[in-house]
């Protein structure tokens, strides 16, 4: 009963359920036959992701047409939207955009039923789902292509691709979810496969521990998902059944949450329980600890997990069931709410932690946590569209950053991720990686005209616009800190002098493939063409060679990528095309994806295509009195208690526009009809509003750069000469000693700057005149980071864990004598205790 | 509980007599299971108990369960037990120390438990009379069971089939020599 | 017939089974005692089904039978493995779980 003019659909939209199905089938194919295939099953994975991407792109195109058909067809013509209740609804129309409610394409099939409850599988395609589908399939495809090079020769190559494919399938199932049951299904598939992928190299105990930690930490949150789903089900069931749906349906839950009869207590507890799940999955503040440890997995996994899939799931849940959170947690109604507070804390805590990490992937991990905090905070302050847009842009630039880090370790630092030991000066050797990294870093920091700017600034701007002044400042501080720690990471990785493996030295092996470290290094050196100095002893040559190689780094590129290309390294060089091509694609998108919704240049496609309109569907309003639009773009709309954009509905018969000013969906449930989304207000973009954030970003970046130059750089550093001496004095095994001595020295420089004020005084006063305030801010940020790491992470969180462990251990010791180890004795105790318990119950009831 | 009802329910004397006879045999056999010193004898006494349970099912109008009991327990489980005995004991015959050192603790625990159970059962169900089922009801019991399995209890049934599968795989993994 | 008849018989079987679990030293005999306990439960279920005049009790009894079959299979496999490793299935010698 779709009206032809008003609402187009299409094959891709109707059959979007194929998108997760293809990778799911591919998973079984890879598992069953992958080992016998010429490419070890990776071709099946890549083909399935490609097919899904094509389907997702088709669906996106048709969805845009559908949205435009509602708007375009609204010039007097009317279309009936078919609600799930089955009633023909008058189409809403407005001269602006996205005011009409675009009915999602919903299909479902009964999966199983038990006790009269029907569990369905299906698809719920709206703008949000389409957007995430497209991003996930796209990123997954690039990551799989990248992985064919990155894990080449791995002993579990086939299983890696199987798990990767199933992981994407899990995310797609979740994104498409029509009911909460399907949502949980996809959510749990992701939990399981993330365990498999993080622990991919489980031979190393640290990796399997990290996998377990990730699994269990997320599992703590998952309890919230089950409890929340149950609460919401029992709350929404009656309302939904009256409309021919059930309490698991996401559409019904949205409608119920905004309806008149919804119990606010039920909604609040449901929202809190669901949010606990989001905290676990999206690495928000108390449960963020698993995320950095999850870096133990292969880099493509980190990239996929941290850009578009796993960690976004929590944010997606909030965005998906936004009405529940909107009403349950009183977003926009009160000055502070759980989502915004957790998001805000996460931004600051994670950004501070990123300052003290030496592992490049851990910096990126904490950065991801911090950016997820932005998304959560955006949702918490009512900035739905900017937050969702941030999911979109963040996926590209964060994926690019992770893949760049992987490229560095693959080809530049000999499988090391330690920025201080094994990197530095890599920009000369890896121009493509460097360029994509810089572009993505600019996007992440929110430098104007890069994608992150348009999403992050919108979140910050809307926080201010919606009256959340505190979170406005939190966002600004977070932006400055982001710029600062990314500058530090960039400096350590790409600038300065090459160190460790980046200087061509092969030290301790990081994975079994490189267990033959030293001999390997020697062999490489002897084969090398560019030996310019007499061969001295052992690994010392490697360093010399690396230094010498600076001048003609290009000569390294054609070297060492024969049949065992994965193992052959001689100094840093650019990665092969299967790594650089995904990087370049993502780097391009990191620049341009922001222009989809850049009010600065006048594009608002995201608002138009993705945001569900907060309008009353299914009721006819003919209040002739309200003749004018309520201009809700003005802040006064909030003061007068009117939430959201005014929503004129077109009267069905005469085509004459009658307006229902202020009837948008908010806290007052609609008396008739159904709301599926709360009406939200958008801050109007003004360049002047972005000035503070741009200034702060620049400030953060410059401070950090200045500190880096001071601490790690060549100038102004009293220890510079020492560094040089040690590097030049390297010979034989003393080189190794000197290397570690250098590391000690770097540490001492940092400690020095904090702990020895007298020695530092002259230096400090010198800078104080020019940059005193700047210096103080930068330093206190670093101290806060260290303090947070030392006290909150190490003491409070670990302390709580240790304390509970201690209590359990002591209790165990006290009860030890009972544990004789004899089964019969246990049986006697069990049954005896049961009998005594039964006697007590009987006596109590007599 | 009126006398009339008691009389009416106790009219079926044959049923009651049958119950008591079978119950006495079962209890004797059960005692033998836990007191005999020969493992094989214990297994054979267990057959008697299981058969008695099947007979009681028939008295309680549960033919389908009774047949299942005979097939699963006496047919399959007992064979497993006998194989288990055969594979773990070279010598068949009475054993001197089949009991633990602390076996005496079992008597007070069992008696205590029986006391509680008996008290509760008599307290709650004293005078409750089981009404005999009609021919029609008995004839449709199996249909009702199958309706239940493929209707309301479909999901538990599927779950149970996974349990059985897991148990089969687990038993093979545990028992095979490698 | 009184419901108490079935329930008392079942209680007696249950307690005999409990005694067996506690007293027996041989692992196979402990498994047999467990079978006694499970059967007493089944008897209860069937009696309740007769009392309530529906078949849910039968369905549950059949579930218990299936679970018991699985339990015996796994249990005996474990006993076999223990026997292979230790040449004995005396439970009081198995005290690795001692805390």
In short:
By secondary structure, chain A is mainly alpha-helical.
Could you describe the 3D structure shown?
The complex is a heterotrimer of chains A (about 850), B (about 180) and C (about 100). Chain A has 30 helices and 8 strands. Chain A has about 850 residues and is mainly alpha-helical. In chain A, the strands form 4 sheets. Chain A has a two-stranded antiparallel ribbon. Chain A has a two-stranded antiparallel sheet with strand order 3-4. In chain A, strand 6 and strand 7 (about 655-660) form a beta hairpin. In chain A, helix 2 runs antiparallel to helix 3 (about 40-70), helix 14 runs parallel beside helix 20 and helix 28 (about 735-755) crosses helix 29 (about 755-815). Chain B folds into 2 domains: about 1-95, Four Helix Bundle (Hemerythrin (Met), subunit A) (Up-down Bundle), CATH 1.20.120.1200; about 135-180. Chain B contains 7 helices and no strands. Chain B has helices at about 5-10, 15-35, 40-60, 65-90, 105-125, 135-150, 155-175. Chain C has a single domain (about 5-85), classed as Orthogonal Bundle (Helix Hairpins), CATH 1.10.287. In chain C, helix 1 (about 5-25) packs antiparallel against helix 2 (about 25-50) and helix 2 packs antiparallel against helix 3 (about 55-85). The radius of gyration of chain C is 17 Å and the shape is elongated.
Radius of gyration of chain B: 21 Å
Q: How far is the N terminus from the C terminus of chain B?
A: 65 Å
Helix vs. strand class of chain A: mainly alpha
Mean pLDDT of chain B: 84
The major pleated sheet of chain A works out as: 2 strands, antiparallel
Q: Let me know the CATH homologous superfamily of the largest domain in chain B.
A: NADH-ubiquinone/plastoquinone oxidoreductase chain 6, subunit NuoJ
Number of helices of chain B: 7
How many structural units, i.e. domains of chain B? 2
The global form of chain A is globular
The oligomeric state of the chains shown is heterotrimer
Helices of chain A, by number, come to: 30
Overall average pLDDT of chain A: 71
List key phrases describing it.
heterotrimer; A: 846 residues; mainly alpha; two-stranded antiparallel ribbon; B: 178 residues; Four Helix Bundle (Hemerythrin (Met), subunit A); 7 helices; 76% helix; globular
């Amino acid at each position: 009963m779709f009206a032809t003019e008003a609402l187009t659909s299409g094959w891709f939209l109707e059959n979007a359920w194929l998108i997760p199905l293809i990778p799911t089938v591919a998973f079984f194919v890879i598992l069953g036959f992958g080992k016998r295939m010429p490419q070890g099953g990776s071709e099946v994975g890549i083909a399935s992701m490609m097919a899904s991407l094509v389907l997702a792109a088709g669906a996106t195109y048709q969805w845009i047409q559908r949205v435009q058909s509602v708007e375009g067809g609204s010039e007097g013509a009317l279309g009936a939207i078919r609600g799930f209740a089955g009633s023909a609804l008058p189409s809403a129309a407005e001269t602006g955009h996205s005011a009409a409610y675009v009915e999602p394409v919903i299909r479902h099939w009964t999966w199983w039923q038990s006790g009269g409850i029907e569990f369905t599988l299906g698809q719920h395609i709206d703008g949000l789902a389409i957007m995430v589908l497209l991003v996930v399939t796209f990123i997954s495809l690039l990551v799989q292509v990248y992985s064919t090079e990155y894990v080449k020769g791995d002993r579990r190559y086939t299983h890696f691709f199987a798990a990767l494919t199933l992981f994407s399938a899990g995310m797609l199932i979740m994104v498409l979810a029509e009911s909460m049951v399907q949502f949980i299904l996809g959510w749990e598939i992701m939990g399981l496969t993330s365990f498999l992928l993080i622990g991919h190299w489980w031979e190393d105990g640290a990796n399997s521990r990290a996998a377990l930690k990730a699994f269990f930490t997320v599992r703590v949150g998952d309890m919230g998902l089950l409890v929340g789903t149950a609460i919401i089900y029992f709350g929404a069931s009656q309302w939904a059944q009256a409309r021919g749906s059930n309490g698991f349906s996401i559409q019904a839950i949205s409608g119920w949450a905004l309806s008149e009869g919804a119990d606010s207590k039920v909604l609040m507890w449901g929202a809190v329980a669901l949010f606990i799940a989001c905290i676990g999955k999206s690495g928000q503040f108390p449960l963020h600890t698993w995320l950095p440890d999850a870096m133990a997995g292969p880099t493509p996994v980190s990239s996929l997990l941290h850009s578009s899939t796993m960690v976004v799931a929590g944010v997606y849940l909030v965005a998906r069931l936004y009405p529940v959170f909107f009403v349950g947690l009183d977003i926009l109604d009160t000055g502070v709410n759980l989502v915004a507070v957790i998001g805000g804390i996460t931004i600051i805590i994670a950004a501070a932690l990123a300052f003290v990490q030496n592992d490049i992937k851990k910096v990126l991990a904490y950065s991801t946590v911090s950016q997820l905090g932005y998304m959560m905070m955006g949702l918490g302050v009512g900035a739905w569209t900017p937050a969702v847009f941030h999911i979109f842009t963040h996926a590209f630039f964060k994926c690019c950053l992770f893949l760049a880090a992987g490229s560095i370790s693959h080809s530049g630092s000999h499988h090391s991720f330690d920025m201080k030991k094994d990197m530095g000066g890599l920009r000369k050797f890896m121009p493509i990686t460097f360029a994509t990294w810089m572009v993505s870093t600019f996007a992440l920091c929110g430098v104007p005209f890069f994608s992150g700017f348009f999403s992050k600034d919108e979140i910050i701007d809307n926080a201010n616009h919606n009256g959340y002044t505190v979170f406005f400042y939190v966002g600004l501080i977070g932006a400055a800190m982001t710029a600062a720690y990314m500058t530090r990471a960039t400096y350590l990785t790409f600038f300065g002098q090459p160190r460790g493996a980046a200087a061509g030295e092969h030290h301790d092996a990081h994975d079994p493939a490189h267990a033959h470290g030293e001999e390997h290094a020697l062999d490489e050196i002897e084969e090398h063409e560019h030996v310019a100095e007499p061969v001295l002893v052992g690994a010392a040559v490697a360093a010399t060679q690396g230094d010498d190689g600076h001048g003609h780094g290009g000569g390294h590129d054609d070297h060492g990528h024969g049949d065992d290309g994965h193992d052959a390294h001689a100094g840093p060089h650019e990665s092969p095309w299967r790594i650089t091509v995904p990087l370049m694609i993502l780097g391009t998108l990191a620049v341009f994806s922001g222009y989809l919704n850049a009010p600065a240049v006048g594009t608002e496609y995201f608002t138009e295509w993705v945001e569900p309109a907060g309008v009353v569907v299914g009721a006819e309003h003919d209040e002739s009195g309200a003749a004018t639009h309520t201009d809700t773009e003005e802040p006064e709309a909030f003061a007068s208690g009117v939430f959201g954009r005014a929503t004129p509905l077109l009267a069905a018969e005469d085509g004459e526009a009658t307006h229902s000013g202020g009837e948008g969906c908010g806290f007052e449930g609609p008396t008739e009809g159904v709301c599926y989304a709360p009406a939200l207000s958008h801050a109007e973009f003004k360049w002047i509003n972005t000035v503070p954030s741009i200034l702060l970003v620049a400030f953060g970046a410059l401070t950090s750069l200045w500190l880096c130059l001071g601490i790690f750089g060549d100038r102004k550093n009293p220890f510079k000469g020492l560094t040089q001496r040690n590097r030049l004095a390297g010979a034989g095994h003393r080189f190794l000693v000197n290397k570690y001595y250098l590391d000690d020295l770097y540490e001492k420089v940092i400690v020095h700057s904090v702990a020895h004020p007298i020695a530092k005084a002259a230096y400090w006063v010198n800078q104080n005149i020019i940059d005193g305030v700047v210096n103080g801010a930068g330093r206190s940020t670093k101290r806060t980071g260290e303090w947070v790491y030392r006290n909150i992470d190490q003491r409070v969180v670990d302390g709580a864990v240790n304390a509970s462990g201690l209590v359990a251990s002591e209790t165990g010791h006290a009860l030890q004598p009972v544990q004789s180890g004899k089964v019969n004795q246990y049986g006697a105790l069990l049954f005896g205790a049961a009998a005594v318990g039964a006697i007590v119950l009987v006596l109590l009831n007599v | 509980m009126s006398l009339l009802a008691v009389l009416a329910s106790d009219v079926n004397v044959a049923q009651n007599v049958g119950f008591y006879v079978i119950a006495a045999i079962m209890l004797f056999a059960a005692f033998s299971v836990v007191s005999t010193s020969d493992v094989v004898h214990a297994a054979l006494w267990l057959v008697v108990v299981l058969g008695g349970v099947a007979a009681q099912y028939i008295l309680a109008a549960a033919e389908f369960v009774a047949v299942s009991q005979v097939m699963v327990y006496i047919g399959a489980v007992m064979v497993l037990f006998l194989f288990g005995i055969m594979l773990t004991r070279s010598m068949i015959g009475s054993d001197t120390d089949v009991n633990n050192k602390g076996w005496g603790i079992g008597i007070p625990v069992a008696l205590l438990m029986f006391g509680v159970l008996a008290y509760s059962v008599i307290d709650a169900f004293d005078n409750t009379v089981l009404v005999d089922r009609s021919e029609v009801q008995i004839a449709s019991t199996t249909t009702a069971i199958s309706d239940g399995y493929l209707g309301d209890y479909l999901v538990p049934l599927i779950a149970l089939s996974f349990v059985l599968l897991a148990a089969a795989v687990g038993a093979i993994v545990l028992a095979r020599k490698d | 017939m009184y419901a108490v008849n079935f329930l008392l018989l079942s209680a007696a079987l249950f307690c005999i089974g409990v005694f067996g679990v506690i007293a027996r030293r041989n692992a196979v005999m402990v498994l047999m005692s467990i079978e006694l306990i499970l059967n007493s439960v089944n008897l209860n279920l069937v009696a309740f089904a007769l009392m309530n005049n529906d078949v849910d009790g039968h369905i549950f009894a059949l579930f218990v039978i299936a679970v018991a079959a699985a339990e015996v299979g796994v249990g005996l496999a474990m006993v076999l493995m223990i026997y292979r490793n230790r040449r004995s299935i005396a439970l009081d010698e198995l005290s690795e779980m001692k805390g």
